[in-house]
Amino acid sequence: TQEGAVLCFDEVMTGFRISKGCAQEYFGVTPDLTCMGKVIGGGLPVGAYGGKKEIMSMVSPAGPMYQAGTLSGNPLAMTAGIKTLEILGRPGAYEHLQRVTERLVKE
């Protein structure tokens, strides 16, 4: 950021729920790092992070920081995540979700 601090968006709760570009797109903010949870796996247990090149270059294999996890790259979670993103990318997907949400709130 302008102040030299690293801005990290924790999209675990907001990821894809308000926009395909998550809260950061909705609010027009570009963070240095982004963290996401099960939403990228279609609700299955998985997580991911990403960010600006100068930060991500510190992560293995390019950099010295190693990151791994039991569920990293789980084929089922990745397939579910890809399908979820395909569905959210369809025209009118978020408008449909808004209508369903409004209906559920009323009932």
UniProtKB/TrEMBL annotation:
Pfam families referenced in this protein's UniProt entry, alphabetically: Aminotran_3
Keyword tRNA-binding: no
Name the UniProt record assigns to this protein: Glutamate-1-semialdehyde 2,1-aminomutase
Keyword terms of this UniProt record: Pyridoxal phosphate
Signal peptide as annotated in the record: none
Alphabetized Gene3D superfamilies for the sequence: Aspartate Aminotransferase, domain 1, Type I PLP-dependent aspartate aminotransferase-like (Major domain)
Keyword Plastid: no
Organism: Noctiluca scintillans (Sea sparkle)
